[in-house]
Amino acid sequence: MSLLTSQAVENVNSIIEPSLIGKSYDDDRDLLFNLLHIVLRWELGHNIMEKIEHTRLCHRLYVYYMLNLLAIVTYPCYFSFNSMSIVYF
Fold it and tell me: Which regions span the lipid bilayer (predicted)?
């Protein structure tokens, strides 16, 4: 694993774990959306995120865009949708 990849993994973990404390969601999609939003706010910064939020054409495209960015940031990790945790291989 490259230094850049390992740093990105540490950053993602440090943001996702605290964000789940004391929160409950009825819908898994809401949880996934919020997790990805937190990660991208950290990775891209507020200015870029605000532009994305204000110009997004639809919710589905926005989530698709975030999933692609998350895949780049967390590779070679895999996101476990059942347990909502990051698993390393």
Answer: 61-81
